Each structure stands twice: as C-alpha cells, then as structure tokens.
Amino acid sequence: MPESNLIDRYQAHRTRRFLQNEETFRHWLPNWRTRRRRRMLVIALGVLFATMVAIGIACLFNPLFAVAWPVLTLLFLPTWSSLQVVSGRQGDAPRHALDEWEIQQRNDARSVGLSVTQSLVFIVAIFLIFTSSVQWNVERLPYSGGLLALTAMLIGACTPAMFSRGPIQTRIRLIPKSSTSDPYFRSAPLDRWEGPMSATLTIDGISKRYGDVVALDNLSFEVRPGEIFGFVGSNGAGKTTTMRIALGVLGADSGEVRLGGKPVDLDVRRTIGYMPEERGLYPKMKVGAQLSYLAELHGLSKADAHAATERWTERLGIAERVKDTVDSLSLGNQQRVQLAAALVHDPAVLVLDEPFSGLDPVAVDVMSDVLVEKARTGVPVIFSSHQLDLVERLCDRVGIISRGSMREIGTVDELRGKGDGRIEVFAPDAPVGWAHHLIGVTTLSHLDGRTLLSVDGTADDQQILHAALKTGPVHEFTLRRPSLTDLFREVVAA
Q1: Does the model's pTM come out above 0.90?
Q2: If one looks up domain 201-415 in CATH, what number appears?
Q3: Alpha-carbon span 92 to 85, nearest angstrom
Q4: Would you say 290 and 326 are in contact if contact means Cβ atoms under 8 Å apart?
Q5: CA distance 257 to 263
C-alpha cells in the first residue's frame, strides 16, 4: 500500500469503527428518539418478516401468493437498512465522513432506484422460476411455489448485508452539518483537533532504536508557524524516521510530538500534509481521480475535492495530465502530483521528505514558490533535502542531523557564523602546502594555483597574504564565510 495512504486508510477504518459503535452512535441522537425509532423499526420489520413467512406457507396451497413477495421487498430492504444504522451496525461509512456530520433520511431517486433495481432482479428471477415450474412439473407446482417463496424470503433477509457497502447505497447518508436544517437530528463531532490552523510543530526528545541500532537519540526541535525549516543530514542520519514519527506512521521509543501544544493523535494527523521520499501514489490510477480521492479521505466534500484538485494541478503545471495514470508520467511530474496530494486538503502543517528530488530547474522554482506561499499563510513547513544551496536559499532555519542527534540548528547566518572562516587565494606559482606552517590555518584544497584555507580565530590574514606573496604573484585574496555545504561537511565529518 502506498505509504502516503496508510493514515488515510486508518482514518477510514476508524470512521467505520465509529459508526459500528452503538454507544457512540446513540450519542448523536437524543436517547428517547433513538429508542422509539428503533422500536418502531423492529416492529415494522417483524410484521414484514411474519408476512413473508405467511406468504411462504400460503404458497404451499396456492403459488400465486409468491407474486406478493417483491412488493414486500420494497418495504423490507429500507426498513432493515435503517434498523442497522440506528443500531450502529451499518457497514463501511463513506470515506469522506471524517468531519462533523449528521445523519438524515435519504429519499432521493438514487436510493430509491437501488431498492427498485434489487426488487426487479428478484421479480424477474421469480417469474422465470415460476414459469419453469409450470412447464416442467404441473403436479408439483404448489411445492415449487412454496419453496420459491421461502428461498426468496431468505435472500431478502441477506440482501441488506450484500448491499450494505455504505449508507450511501441504502436509505441514509452522511451530510455536512452546514447543509441541513432538520432539527430532528443533532450533530456530535468526532474527536477532531480543535487547535489553531497555524501552530508550532514540536519534536520533544524522541528516541528510536532498531535492535542495537540507534536511529534517533533524544532529538528535539520545533518548526514555528510560517517558518520553512530545512532538515538536512547524510543518508541514514534519521531524517525520514523523524518525519514518520512526526506523522504517526512510526512510534517513538520515548519522547513526544506535538502540534499546537497537543499530542499528535489521529485527528491531528488529518491536518498534516505529508510527502514521502518514495513514490506514495497508486500507479494505475488517474491523477485527477487520485487527488480527489485523497482529498475526500481528509474530509472534503466531492465538490470541494474536485475544486482543490483543479487548483493545485493548475498551480503545479500538471493540469493537462489529470486524466493520465501516474505511472505514465515522468519522475518530475510524479513528484508534482505527490506535492499536490500533500496540499489538496489544505493542511495545517507540511512535512516533505526530499520534495525536490528529480525535478528540473523550472519545477524546482515552481515548488519553491508554492512552499513560500504556504509559509506566508502561517503554515509550518519542514522539508529534507540534499540540495543544500536550495535549503540555504529557502529556509528560515536549518537543522543538521547526524547519527540520530541534532548537531547544529539555527538560521543560515547563525550557522555560517559558527564555522571557521574561509580564505581563497589564487597564486599560480604557489606550491602545495605553502600555508602549512601558518598558525590557525588549515588547507582544505589546492588545485591549479587556487587554495582554499580554513582559518580560526587565532589566524592572521595579513600573515597569510604575506606568505602567499612569497611564492609569487597573488591574483586573488578573498575572505568569505563558510557555506551551508561547508558546514555540513564539517558536522558530518566530526
């Protein structure tokens, strides 16, 4: 299963469990109304069932009574389905039912059409079997008719289970709270997150071990509202593990993840937009249908999901590919679709694992602009990347992780100020090692007369220049601060 959909599937499972829980379901309705309605449905169902049994017995004497069974089916199916829902035994709920919802009767043509269709199927079956009985064995006609009616009755009892793929296929549906004014039903929200849409993501002392391997060791940092946080480290440093724990896909051995001061539970996870490093999409599914499906899993209505899909595919330059399957796209366009999947439900925080991998420069610029736009709306953005020049350009703060621990964290200027200074000298005639004797100076590289030196606080730049002039003419002598790439190399090598 694609990783980006693990939580969506779990959310859908939780919704089904919610609807299957009678005590929770009854909380949605005043208790006295629930009991009265269930009692009425049980009585109606009992009368219908007894009538069907009576017809089955009557068919032993006159098979023409079997003709009345389809009429009872029209009443039996919706009555049974309604009883299932009020009793909290309904099957799968619609996957978009992850917000505040209410239950109301559905009397539109679609639900009625399903019941009529089911009944017509049984009417045709009865007619064919009844006709065959008349033609094949007239003497056993009463027996055949009675057996037919009893069999049809049993099929009718099983039909709700066969067709209970969800309330939307029976006689009820889940609808948004804002779209109904029926005072009979009262909405009771799920245990959803009530924190601010723009909140700080806090990683507080999390640790994770895989046997003897320490993946994370008391890791702590935070991503503030409206901040783009660059999370960098070498392969295997613990970046992906941290993101999966933040999302709830993995559990930490110790420590806690909070969003807006609240622990990240199932309801908070719904507000997170996650983009995994590996492809987390259904390869054979069309782009537009997939994005709309994922948006509905996060609680958007069908219309809102479609609108969000159109908006983000247009913004990311893949509007013309919405009818293509994911596996037919280039790697760069697949990456754009993955970002759209993380954005389509308007998340409160973005967690992106290597979002710029495989993108051409134009796509990098588009994605960079999108992340900046989201941050300006107050959304915390955290992403990992090995493109350190891009991290340096985009991020407000950067954290460098190595061997599961945060080694350095701060703004780019703060990090660059922590490292040793750099002096680049271009002296064509200078031999290798000409600066080895200088105090506080380390030669980082020497190629074609161009020497890069690392200098600490004890080094004297005038002495360095004087030593270079002794070797011959000096064409360049440049003082510069270390780049993020330089600092990354120092941290990883330490």
Answers
A1: no
A2: 3.40.50.300
A3: 11
A4: yes
A5: 6
